[in-house]
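Postdoc handover notes: sequence design on the structure in folder B. Input tokens:
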């Protein structure tokens, strides 16, 4: 899909299994909302084919695609009550009154809207409005549910609450769902299948924990995870039957079995380790790096230390256990170990993970 000379989507080939929850995640401008609008029929694809439930819908108007969409802006009719908002689409399809009443009753019970049916949207909170928007989609009983960043307008507590409601709704209805978000927490907690988009391309797809544990590219590695993965440029060095990755004050042992033939003496790589995979070195243990602490962020059940690798200065973040967090002070030097099984390597030229080449 292109708008004028600007190419938005550059060849996306994906499949959602019936009944699954697929999430499109990526930074602003990566093309995820455009892809959702193509599925909905709100935009027309320049090339390629779209099928829903085995039916080619590429040139069909939205009303003939049997989909229901929940928007970021709720898109409720302000002059209609909650009940009439829920019934509106069904009345347009000339659904019998008894069936409309039955579906509204089911949806309102599922979403806790029973006591709100006579209110206008302006009399509802943000979370309640979003549940009404979800209810309007549920009563349609479509082949496919589409969600376009539905939680962006809610505060943190409400986002968590409505996120649970969305997943619960999906599981109860066994509905096929395509969900767009830039929030990695939403993506990781909701998805059966995760698609990471960047610059109009799908960088990686798979189960959320698989994508998190084995990012295929440097972009995916830094986009998923909070705080993001520590990265520094370096080179591979062959040592006594194995390899180490060195650079930016980091000397990390490498899992030879995992990376195999991609390991070459002198090859330039990006070395990555997630903050929670680093650990404080024990007495007598050779550290992978030495962190000069700048600030300690205590979160109650855990703490993060931010600082710099002592030798040459790349920024490093490490998750500390409570016993170490209490002792760490700005200016301290903390020896850290990067276990080989948690060291990620990316090609310095292409950004592709060495174990994905």
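Designed sequence:
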């Amino acid at each position: 899909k292109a708008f004028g000379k600007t190419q938005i989507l550059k060849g996306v080939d994906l499949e959602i299994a019936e009944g699954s929850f697929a999430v499109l995640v990526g930074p602003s401008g990566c093309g995820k909302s455009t892809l959702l609008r193509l599925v909905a029929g709100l935009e027309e694809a320049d090339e390629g084919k779209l099928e829903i439930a085995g039916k080619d819908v590429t040139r069909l108007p939205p009303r003939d695609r049997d989909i229901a969409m929940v928007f970021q802006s709720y898109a409720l009719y302000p002059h209609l009550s909650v009940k009439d908002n829920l019934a509106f689409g069904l009345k347009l399809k000339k659904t019998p009154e008894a069936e409309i009443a039955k579906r509204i009753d089911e949806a309102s019970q599922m979403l806790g809207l029973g006591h709100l049916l006579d209110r206008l949207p302006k009399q509802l909170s943000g979370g309640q409005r979003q549940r009404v928007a979800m209810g309007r989609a549920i009563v349609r009983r479509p082949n496919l549910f589409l969600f376009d960043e539905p939680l962006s307008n809610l505060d943190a507590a409400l986002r968590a609450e409505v996120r649970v409601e969305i997943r619960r709704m999906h599981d109860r209805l066994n509905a096929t769902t395509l969900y767009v978000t830039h929030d990695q927490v939403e993506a990781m907690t909701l998805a059966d299948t995760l698609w990471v988009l960047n610059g109009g391309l799908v960088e990686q797809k798979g189960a959320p924990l698989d994508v998190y544990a084995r990012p295929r590219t440097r972009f995916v590695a830094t986009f998923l995870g909070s705080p993001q993965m520590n990265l520094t440029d370096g080179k591979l060095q062959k040592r006594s039957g194995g390899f180490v990755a060195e650079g930016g004050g980091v000397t990390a042992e490498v899992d030879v079995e995992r990376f195999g033939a991609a390991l070459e003496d002198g090859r330039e790589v990006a070395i990555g380790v997630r903050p929670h995979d680093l650990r404080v070195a024990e007495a007598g243990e050779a550290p992978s790096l030495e962190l000069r602490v700048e600030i300690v962020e205590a979160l109650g059940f855990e703490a993060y230390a931010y600082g710099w690798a002592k030798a040459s200065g790349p920024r490093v973040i490490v998750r500390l256990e409570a016993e170490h967090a209490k002792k760490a002070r700005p200016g301290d030097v903390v020896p850290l170990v990067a276990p080989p099984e948690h060291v990620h390597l990316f090609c310095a030229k292409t950004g592709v993970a060495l174990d994905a080449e």
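Context for whoever picks this up: The CA atoms of residues 315 and 351 lie 19 Å apart. Don't rerun without checking with the PI first.
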